[in-house]
Every structure is written in structure tokens, then in C-alpha cells.
Write a structure and sequence with these properties.
With 152 residues, the protein is mainly alpha-helical. It is 64% helix and 4% strand. Strands 1-2 form a two-stranded antiparallel sheet. The two termini are 32 Å apart.
Length: 152
């Protein structure tokens, strides 16, 4: 599961940085050795699934059976997933977990990960959430009573 989500997020690793990608894989820090892509990816997929189900089966209003109604829910999904991805990683940054042992001195030093990299990872999580929302929409929209034609 971690390989799957890691490969999806690493499509854009040039955007958020290789050091942060290695940290999320659990490769660069003795403080964090688990694959963080699993939790972040599952939350992104879960939130996207809940937003699709909310649009097509809970709200399910005829006035929203068009592209802009669908776009509202896609935008809310993107915003939520941006904040989740950004804050999930930012917590480790503020807790001081992004450190590695120096090869020359043997002391613990900060990784070269900056808040802008973490913000870029939030944008990456948002992009992946939009793709998941589109994919899940095409799978789940057919059984909706009022919105089976949205967005197309």
C-alpha cells in the first residue's frame, strides 16, 4: 500500500523536493522510519470518497446536476486535502523530527526541508485529491438519482 501511494505522490516529487520525499518514505531520518505516504494517501482517498458520496447521494439535488455544482464539491475536496497534507507534514517539521545523522560529524542535523517544500506537498496532495475525485466520480455517479450526468 505504501508503494502505491508513494509512487503516486512521487510523480510530483520535483515540486516538493527530494529530501521531503525521502523523509516521507521513511528513509532519511532515524526519528521517522515509517512510510508516511500510507496515512496521507488513505486520508486523501477517504476524504475524496466521502465528498463524492456526499455530492451524488447525500446532497443529490437537481440544481447541482451540472458542471459548476460538481466543481464546488471538487473545490471543497481539494481545499480540505490541501490543508490535511500540509498540516500532517508541518507537524513533524515543528516537532523537530526532520533530522538526520551527519556523516562527517556524527551529530544530528536538520534536513534541508523548508516550509515552502511542505506547502508544495500540500499542493501535491490537493492535485492528487482532484484526480481521485474525478476518478471516483466516474465510478460512483451512475446510481445517483438526480446527478448522474454531472459533470458531463
Amino acid at each position: 500500500m505504501g508503494e502505491f501511494f508513494g509512487s503516486i505522490y512521487c510523480w510530483l516529487e520535483d515540486f516538493f523536493g527530494l529530501e521531503l520525499a525521502d523523509y516521507l518514505w521513511g528513509l532519511s531520518s532515524p526519528e521517522q522510519q515509517s512510510n508516511m505516504y500510507i496515512g496521507i494517501g488513505l486520508s486523501m482517498l477517504g476524504i475524496s470518497f466521502l465528498m463524492v458520496v456526499t455530492y451524488y447521494y447525500v446532497v443529490n439535488h437537481p440544481r447541482l446536476n451540472n458542471w459548476w455544482g460538481w466543481l464546488i464539491f471538487a473545490g471543497v475536496n481539494a481545499a480540505i486535502n490541501f490543508v490535511v497534507g500540509w498540516q500532517w507534514v508541518l507537524k513533524d517539521y515543528y516537532d523537530g523530527l526532520m533530522v538526520a545523522k551527519s556523516a562527517t560529524t556524527g551529530k544530528m542535523e536538520d534536513l534541508h526541508i523548508y516550509e515552502s517544500d511542505i506547502l508544495a506537498f500540500g499542493v501535491t496532495n490537493m492535485i492528487d485529491a482532484i484526480l481521485a475525485f474525478i476518478f471516483l466520480s466516474f465510478i460512483l455517479k451512475w446510481w445517483s438519482r438526480n446527478c448522474p450526468n454531472a459533470p458531463f
